[in-house]
């Protein structure tokens, strides 16, 4: 993938992780990655519809997984796919936590450890600095946030 295409995925993601929603500017010492949502070993490609902009932690923890476990039921479910699913249909930010609204949402919250002490501490720090406000700390959809970004 060339740099222009990489930057287009990044821009369309609103300069934030398409899983946990953290903005690049809030993780200045950590790299973001192009995440092949369906890994190459499972037939995924470098086409834009298979790529998500991901923080390092989410990218590493998602790995090549295609499915996860809903921690509420123990059932195996497909994982959240940023190109096929709408974030707000599967997640809701509540305070410093992200609540899974569906089995898909709950499975990836658990898999990506979105409530790890480090993530909760980061969100608490951002909230204390006035950078997370109430329920509106994520846009309605990462793809809709392009106009809201101000470097
Ligand atoms: Zn993330």
What keywords describe this structure?
two-stranded antiparallel ribbon; binds zinc ion; 151 residues; disordered C terminus; single chain; 5 helices; alpha+beta
Task: Describe this structure as you would to a colleague.
By secondary structure, the protein is α+β, with helices and mostly antiparallel strands. It has one domain (3-142). It has helices spanning 3-12, 56-62, 87-90, 103-111, 117-128; strands at 32-36, 51-55, 67-69, 76-78, 91-94, 97-100. The strands form three sheets. The chain has a two-stranded antiparallel sheet with strand order 1-2. A two-stranded antiparallel ribbon has the order 3-4. Strand 3 (67-69) and strand 4 (76-78) form a beta hairpin. It binds zinc ion.
Any idea what the shape is? globular
Residue share in helix? 25-40%
For the termini, the CA-CA separation is 25 Å
Whole-number average pLDDT?
Answer: 85
How many helix segments? Answer: 5
Largest sheet composition: 2 strands, antiparallel
| Largest sheet, spatial ordering of strands | 1-2
Number of strands: 6
SSE succession:
HEEHEEHEEHH
Q: Indicate the low-confidence ranges by residue numbers.
A: 139-151
Catalogue the ligands: zinc ion
What's the gyration radius in Å?
A: 15 Å
SS class: alpha+beta
Please state roughly what percent of the residues sit in beta strands, choosing from under 5%, 5-15%, 15-25%, 25-35%, 35-45% or over 45%. Answer: 15-25%
Give the domain tally.
1
């Amino acid at each position: 993938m060339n740099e222009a295409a990489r930057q287009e995925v990044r821009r369309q993601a609103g300069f934030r992780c398409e899983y946990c929603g953290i903005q690049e500017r809030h993780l200045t010492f950590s790299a973001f990655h192009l995440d092949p949502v369906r890994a190459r070993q499972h037939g995924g490609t470098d086409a834009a519809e298979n790529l998500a902009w991901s923080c390092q932690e989410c990218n590493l923890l998602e790995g090549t997984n295609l499915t996860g476990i809903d921690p509420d039921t123990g059932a195996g479910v497909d994982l959240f796919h940023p190109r096929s699913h709408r974030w707000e249909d599967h997640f809701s930010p509540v305070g410093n936590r992200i609540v899974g609204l569906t089995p898909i949402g709950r499975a990836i919250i658990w898999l990506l450890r979105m409530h790890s002490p480090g993530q909760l501490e980061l969100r608490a720090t951002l909230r204390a600095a006035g950078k997370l406000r109430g329920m509106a700390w994520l846009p309605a959809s990462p793809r809709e946030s392009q106009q809201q970004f101000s470097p």
